[in-house]
Structures are given as C-alpha cells and as structure tokens.
Design brief:
alpha/beta; 455 residues; 8-stranded mixed sheet
Length: 455
Amino acid sequence: MRASTMNKANTMMKIATTITLSASIAMAQDLTITAPPQVNPIAIVGATVHTVSGPVYEDGWVLFEDGFITGVGPAGSDRIFNATTTIIDATGKHVYPGLIGSYTQLGMREIGSVRATRDEDELGALSPEARSTVAVNPDSWLLPVARHNGVLAAGVFPTGGSIPGRAGVIQLEGWTTEDLTLEANAGLVINWPRQRPIDAWWMDQSDAEQLDEIREQMRVINDIVEQAEAYRDAGDNATTDLVLEAIVPSLPRGREEPEKQVFIQANDLDQITSAVSWATGKGMRVVLLGARDAPLAADLLKEHDVSVIALGNIGFPKRADSPYDDAYTLPARLEAAGISWCLQSGDEPAHERNLPHYAGQAVAYGLDPEAALRGITLSAAEILGVDRLIGSLEAGKHATLLVADGNIFEVTTTVERAFVQGRDIDLSNKQTELADKYREKYRQLNVNRANAPQR
C-alpha cells in the first residue's frame, strides 16, 4: 500500500510539474500582433536624423517605401513626397537606425530556471551543424520588450561545448522564424579554452588535471577543423558529412578568403593570443567575443584585422589591481587603440533592452558619442555581416529605424515609434501592460479614497 501510495504521489507530482511548466511556457508567449507590410510611402520630417554612416541632420527627413529607405536629407534638400505619402511630423524628436544587440540569446532562452525554454545549448561538445536561428521562438515575449527600447535586430549565438554551432542575425518582428531571419549563418562559433589553471578556493582539480583538460579541449577543436580541411580538399570525392560541411565556409579555399567568419569566445590575454594565432594560421577571418583584454593585444588584432564584439561594460574590474572603471572604459580603450569593435550588452536576454544605456555608460567614461552610436548600429551590422541591410540610414537599406523623444543613450528617453522593414510595429509588451494595469489600480484607489465618507 505504501509503495502504491508513493507511486500515486510521484505521478501527481509529475503531472503538477508538467502543468506548471506548460503554464510557464504559455505565459511567455508574445500576444502582440505582427504589423502588416508597408503599403504607402512614409516620410518622417523635422527630426534630428542620425544617419550614422553620414552626417547628422538637425532638421532632417527620412523617406521609405515598400520596406526600404529611398531618401535621407536635411530640410530644404530635394525630397519628393507624392500624394499617397504618409507624413510623420517628428519636430523635436530624434530618428536613429534600429539598434542591434550584437551578441544575444534572444528568442532562444525565455525563463532561465525552466530547461524547456532554453534552446541555446545543444548536447555534446561539438555541434557545428546547429544553426541558432532555427531555435528562435518568434513568439518570445522578450522580443517586444527589447524592441520597446529600440533594439530592432540581434545576433543570436549558441552556447555550450567547444563548437556550439553557427550564429545568425534576426530582426525582432515577424510571424515566423523565417520572417525574423536576416542571416541564417553569420559564422561558426568556437569557445576557446582558457590557457592557465584556475587557482581559486572552489576549484577541485589540480593544476595538472586542469592543464590536461585544456590540452584535450584544444586537441578536439583542432582535430575537427583539420578533418574539415581534408573534407574541403576532397571536394566531390568526399561523402557528405553535415558536421564538416558546416565548418567549411569558415575555411579559406586556396587564395580566396573564407566565405564566413569564425566567432571565438576569448577574454584573457593568453586566450586571445592563442586563439588568434591558431585561427589566422588556418586562414580564418576572426571575430573575438568578450575579449576583455583586447586592448592589451591591440597590435596583434590590428595586424590580422580581428574585430571584437566587446563584453558588456557594466561589471567589476577584471583584476585586483585594475582601476575601478576597468569595465566602463573598455569601449573607449578599444576605440583609442584603433580596434574594430561593437558593443554587446553582456546581460541576460530579458535585459537586452538596456543596450543603449550601456552605450551611454561608455560615453560617460570617455567614448565619443558618435562612436558609441556606431558601436550599437553600423559597426555591429558590419561585424555580423548584415551591413548591406541594416545599421545606418541610407537609401537602399531596410527601413528599420526608430523615433525617440530624446537622446537614445538617456534612461529617460522614450522610443515613441519604430519600423522594421517599413512596418509600423506595436511597441506594447508585457511590461507596458503591467505598468498600465497598476497605474489603473492606484488611480482607482485614489478615486475611492477621495469619495470615501469623512469620519
């Protein structure tokens, strides 16, 4: 009887857990309606227009049609608005290109504590064939939260293992994963092993054991890349292998540059030196992820034209003898060193909306405002390989842009309108609905108190 009772209890617990997980997942669905394609031409006039790739127009205009920008200019310059053009008066406002979260898990991770909502990490150490964009949930409620603050596109990166897969680029508006995808394969992702043992109270491995593990991780990475090189050289004589096939675009063919770049996660100076030396030795085009010590390796990075997706600039100093503002000044130091860079938030997907504020923090610690804006728009697009589509306000690019009531770096600034490929998108989300709900609650409480009889 006891065993039977325990089995029933276990069964009921499993059912309850399943219901809870299902409810958590259901609650994480975005209920906003995707905007329809642009019908009529739209012109935004009277605003301060930040083109990023060109001048700032204090009293400028942007015209877009069928989802593409057709003209940008200052007041008084040639502009042709036909009878069907919708005019948006943005006098006193600012127009920016859509901001780009360069390194995120948006749409792949919803609730950190619920494994069923985390799709950024494949099983096993090697899964180069995995593409991050296919794991993106277009109904994630974190997408409208991010775009509410101007983040309209994002690089989505797999994590875990030595080679977790291939990164992609998405826009944050669309019915399906295919609608969201701007670039399905931005490049291979490699997590480079640390190069030194960790000497900390929590480490339960000896130095020798750690070094053996590091050597094994490097051997595994090098072996599969060498297999991919042999597979590439075999050409049509090789039996199709999807794992090796996924690595080949990041390898050179003869004297030609690789079709795709490789993103290597490395932070410490010795990690960076080792990773760059290995990858450039194989003819790869390298982008470093994190790269906290990148300014210390500036000569090496510039010699090999290595770009950096810089670790978020909010955090503690890296070393005990580092200055207190070590993290805050990283973008300014990268810019001063002449390294090609863009800024990642370094935050959880739920907080990707804070990206412009982190760029503002960099400005407060010495970075030129124009460089900061470029670091979350055009530079990010260039490094991710989608600058032909987004990142600046230029004729021929997607009409992916935002209208804000002030400087985008300021916490008090509100993004009032946003367009993704010319579609006027809904900026409401779960957080705005909760804000409205509780404002109404306290409005009613105040009315009730005012109408209550005096005692």
